[in-house]
Specification:
The structure is a single chain. By secondary structure, the protein is of the alpha+beta class. Helix 1 packs across helix 2. It has a 3-stranded antiparallel beta sheet. The C terminus is likely disordered. The protein is built from 3 helices and 5 strands, in the order H-H-E-E-E-E-E-H. The radius of gyration is 19 Å and the shape is extended. Helix content is 35%, strand content 25%. It has 2 domains: 40 residues; 52 residues, IHF-like DNA-binding proteins (HU Protein, Chain A, Irregular), CATH 4.10.520.10.
Length: 110
């Protein structure tokens, strides 16, 4: 699913204009980025949590030349799915019905 697909899905399920849905999706993503930049942890119950992890500096290699390259320390975003999300992905539970009353898609029909 792309960001455009997500915007379209929000627009369809919430019966909003595409522009309004785009503002909603962008606001959510911007909020996540701002919270991670500030060092905050984001927890969405039933979905998972986002936080940053610190990577140590290391020595890498340029794959083209084989030269040693110093890779500086950096923060990386990290997502940890909830147990509930893992169970849903692995087919342990039924997916909740869509807001429009349409049945959840069957496995393998993506």
């Amino acid at each position: 699913m792309t960001k455009a697909d997500l915007i379209e899905e929000v627009s369809r399920l919430a019966e909003l204009t595409r522009k309004d849905s785009e503002v909603i999706v962008e606001t959510i993503f911007d909020s996540v980025v701002h919270a991670l930049r500030a060092g905050d942890k984001i927890e969405i119950r039933g979905f998972g949590s986002f936080r940053t992890r610190q990577r140590k500096p290391r020595v890498g290699r340029n794959p083209k030349t084989g030269d040693r390259v110093e890779v500086p320390a950096k923060k990386i975003p990290f997502f940890k799915p909830s147990k509930e999300l893992k169970d849903l992905v692995n087919g342990g539970e039924e997916l909740p019905a869509a807001a429009d009353g349409a049945p959840a898609p069957a496995e393998g029909n993506a």
